[in-house]
Amino acid sequence: LSSLPLFPRVALLGVGYIGGSAVLAARQAGLVGHVVGYDVSPSAGVVGQQKGVLDASASTLAEAVRDANLVLLAAPVRSLETLLRDLGKGLPPHAIVIDVGSVKSDVVAAAEAFLPAGQFVGCHPMAGAEFCGVESAEAGIFAGRVCFLCPPSHVEPRAMHAAQAFWAGIGCRVIAIDPQTHDRLMAAQSHLPHVAAYALAGALSPSLSFLDSTTSEASPTTSLRDTTRIAASSPAVWRDIFLANAENLLPLIEELEINVREIKAAVAKGDAAELESLLAKGQFARQRLVKA
Amino acid sequence: LSSLPLFPRVALLGVGYIGGSAVLAARQAGLVGHVVGYDVSPSAGVVGQQKGVLDASASTLAEAVRDANLVLLAAPVRSLETLLRDLGKGLPPHAIVIDVGSVKSDVVAAAEAFLPAGQFVGCHPMAGAEFCGVESAEAGIFAGRVCFLCPPSHVEPRAMHAAQAFWAGIGCRVIAIDPQTHDRLMAAQSHLPHVAAYALAGALSPSLSFLDSTTSEASPTTSLRDTTRIAASSPAVWRDIFLANAENLLPLIEELEINVREIKAAVAKGDAAELESLLAKGQFARQRLVKA
Question: Can you tell me the ipTM of this complex?
Answer without folding.
Answer: 0.89
